[in-house]
């Protein structure tokens, strides 16, 4: 087999093991793909407008014309859930991505430089983590005003200390490694050392933690919309749909049931996938260490710890 084909085959096998390595990973991957297809395909193929009112079709039970029924204003529940899911997922991913980038940068600076910068930033992170994340997000969203932008920013601010502390701990383990000291001795600057040697060591851990955080972020943002601080009418969003359907639990069970099911499925898939990726990526890194393809943070190839390493 040619080298290129063998390389492609190995990457496909690695991806299969990563996303279908065990039952939990497979379930999380399949559920995630179902949610993604749902929020992308349904708004394209559906003939209904998610914001168009139709008083003559109020609270219609699921049927061939409306697969998940209609809401109290005659709007199709299926297309509204798809549009709302797309908005919730985009905002949750944006919030987690922003928190991850901000936390990784600040945590790397704290772990590598130490001193006053480390003390000040970590005390700020401790102060933010002293509040329950839900309460902190509520306070920030209320101060920024209603809307999905405020809900996304509030979620990112509530999460960045978590990623900053993870990155700080990993960087502190790596900064005394021989290859880092060699780069500094050769005149490498702070940005080069962080980008080339320190931050790549944290990529796998941050990726798995961010994947798990997406599920919580979806619930956070939906919860803010549920309380009136997120999406506003007529914008469809899972939390807002659940809030609007609360008064019709007995009259139209399908209205809140399918909204809650969509939210639960998205959060469950993110948690299962993130938890399984953490295990599989850890196994892949340990295998790479044994084969000599990677170097454990803060250790020489022979396995001896450097003198003066933290």
How would you briefly describe this protein structure?
By secondary structure, this protein is an all-alpha fold.
Structure, explained:
The radius of gyration is 23 Å and the shape is globular. It has 310 residues and is an all-alpha fold. The longest helix is centred in the last third of the chain and has 38 residues, at 254-291. The protein has ten helices and no strands. It has helices at 3-20, 23-45, 77-113, 115-129, 133-144, 148-174, 178-185, 190-226, 238-245, 254-291. Helix 2 packs across helix 3 (77-113), helix 3 packs antiparallel against helix 4 and helix 3 (77-113) packs parallel to helix 6. It starts with a helix and ends in a 19-residue tail after the last helix. Helix content is 72%, strand content 0%. The protein has a single domain (3-47, 56-291), classed as MetI-like fold.
Number of discrete helical segments = 10
**Biggest beta sheet summary:** none
What is the H/E string?
Answer: HHHHHHHHHH
Quaternary structure of the protein:
single chain
Arithmetic mean pLDDT: 81
E-strand count: 0
* Number of spatially distinct domains: 1
CATH superfamily: MetI-like
Strand content: under 5%
The termini sit apart by 46 Å
Please name the CATH topology.
MetI-like fold
Proportion of helical residues: over 70%
Q: Structural class from helices and strands?
A: mainly alpha
